[in-house]
Write a structure and sequence with these properties.
Elements lengths: L6 E4 L3 H13 L5 E3 L2 H11 L3 E4 L8 H10 L8 E5 L6 H7 L4 E4 L7 H18 L1
Parallel strand pairs: 1-2, 1-3, 3-4, 4-5
């Protein structure tokens, strides 16, 4: 990728936030950070990121609330959302995708492949939009 997308990370757990932002920064990104769903929605509205990485279980507004608001707001609805969550029971992936997320990465994330997963999703998202 030549131009780095602007990535918003919505995560309330300090350890997870540190790891995710560290990995993104080590790969040349300057992520925007929000510590809960409400902050994430506000940051998305003001910054209009290219991609959002969002936890599911957070205070103030859950990841489900974030996805719902993104999909009903015309300014945010085309921004791809990736859930990053420890919800890994049978049916969780389907429930998360049905709620409005475009993809899903299970926690614990794998540092060696995390950024490549995010970039692969973003490239695929761009390619599918070009075909539309």
């Amino acid at each position: 990728m030549t131009a780095r997308p602007l990535i918003l990370v919505i995560e309330d757990n300090p350890d997870n936030l540190h790891l995710i932002t560290y990995l993104l920064k080590a790969s040349g990104y300057e992520p925007i950070i929000a510590l809960d769903g409400a902050q994430g929605i506000d940051a998305a509205k003001s910054e209009l990121p290219d991609l959002v990485l969002c936890d599911i279980h957070m205070p103030n507004k859950s990841g489900y609330d974030v996805a719902c608001e993104f999909k009903t707001d015309p300014r945010l609805s085309s921004i791809p959302l990736i859930a990053i969550t420890s919800y890994a029971m049978v049916g969780d992936r389907e429930r998360i995708l049905a709620s409005g997320f475009d993809s899903y990465i299970a926690k614990p994330i794998i540092p060696e492949t995390f950024v490549q997963e995010v970039e692969a999703f973003y490239r695929a998202h761009l390619d599918s939009n070009r075909e539309s």
